[in-house]
## 1
Amino acid sequence: MSGHSKWSTIKRQKGASDIKRGNLFTKLSNAITVAVRQGGGVTDPESNFKLRLVVDRARSANMPKDNIERAIERAHGGTEGAVEELIYEGFGPGGIAVMVEAITDNKQRTASEIKNVFEKNGGSLANPGSVSYLFKKKGIVVVSKNGASSDELLSKGIEAGVEDMEEEFERVIYYIDPQNFSQAKTTLEGEGLAVLSAEIIYEPTAFADQNQETQVQILKLIEKLEELSDVQKVYTNLA
């Protein structure tokens, strides 16, 4: 298992804005809607893995139980057809590759807002396929060490079929093939590990270095994109 810190890079890019977005519950409600639709209308998180991941995120964000249940009921009621999940691609300052996950009921509005943010922050919206080849989907499960040794955690990770493991203070980050994500997460939980978070991300196949000034500009672009109500997640290949 490798010792490089992919997690620190990913976390640095995705951390602070998650806390300060005032419309986080709206974003989570939309994600629940799409998860129910993509799960064939299944509203039980135990039978719909993508819904389970979103509900876990909602609970971690202290989203009230009533809000979660209303979002599931709304999706089950058939209104989810107006909402869809889209990927936008672009270039940030210094030519950094940017992937934007969005959920929207108005593609024209969302594309216009995202394009505007790119252009105001030194970037540009690009055509589909322009940067997606620089990323691959990857499952990430973060667990608490709870006093377990590195060897124990490595053994449990191998048993669950993870591809890579990284330690960070009192946490361990497992990297997992998305095709094996559901089973691996279930196995890790069955091993008694306390899962702090679990998600499927777009991981860069290679990271790009930039000077400090450009890094600040890129992080500002990420922050402004994540402030948009339709944007769920933003990924870059910034080192």
Note: The mean pLDDT is 89.
## 2
Amino acid sequence: MMSKYESPDYQVVKKDGSFEIRRYKEFYTTSVDENKLSGYSGFGLLFSYISGNNKKNEKIQMTVPVINEFNNDQMSMEFVVPSKYYNQEIPTPNNEKLVTKFYPEHYAVALRFTGLSTAHHINKEKERLTQWLIKNKIESTGRYRLARFNPPFSIPFLRHNEIFIEVDYQE
């Protein structure tokens, strides 16, 4: 993983091959709605925001992963807010299309995969995750999310991607 970038804090509770049950600490994201996976308008708005296009005119450190939350034919594109802002005011975006989202502490199951995050590949990984949840009798409580950890110019087989979903889990 690209350790020079901050990412949401979690503990692995259980590991099963490529699948991990994780307990995430609370975190925030800055989010924009996007209508396609390869959409760059959302990325551009988010990049502009962290480059200083916010009410504080403050540059915000890049984090990983870039998250897409799937909702029928819509999806979000989200940048994780650096943890230094959790005890202070998160810079307000100048663009009204951008919103801050709060994720309380939660459990999620993540499936790591490499390659390009095409719709076909993502659907295949979502299905693998769905089957794993059924087999392990674990109930999902949220929507599927895609986490991408590498820049778009990274070599596909070296990319770190994850499909994950919040779950109802007891340790």
Note: The domain at 10-168 is CATH 3.20.80.10 (Multidrug-efflux Transporter 1 Regulator Bmrr; Chain A).
## 3
Amino acid sequence: MLGGRPQRREDLLYQLRSRTPHELWLVIVDASASTRRHQALSDAKGLLAQLFDDAYRQRARMALLTASGQSPKWQVQGLKAAKGLGHWLDGLGAGGGTPLLAALTEAGHWLVTRRKRYPAEQQRLLVVTDGRLKDVTGLPQLDCPGVLVDIERGPIRLGRAKELATGLRVDYWHIDNL
């Protein structure tokens, strides 16, 4: 070999690309005004920082959707996890209404399109919310294994996040138990 360039056919080494499918982590963050109570969103930021670091180390792809204000907003859609997500997390604030149902519906449509494009991709879902919704009926089926992390705190807890997890068919964890 001359300068790393093959001179003969025998000099070529064929390496198969990894056959393991990529992982996609879809994260939906409820950043409505109710998540400011009792440092719920602050604690969720710590959890998300660890998640982003894990995704970066595992070379997973991320999709990040925030639900606050009037409508959900995509932050990242299927890109490799990057250190830059920490800057977004630092600026994350809570306010406005809870368009969580709209975010879940939009995520469901996005996942269907994504599955058509990348059928071998392994998808996982994380929903971070306090569950303070008026109605938890009419939930979309995201057809994706996942976890709902309940960040509801305070002396009076409505417990709707557990109902939401059951309706979405995902596991339920409270942030205090993580």
Note: Helices lie at 40-57, 85-90, 100-117, 160-168.
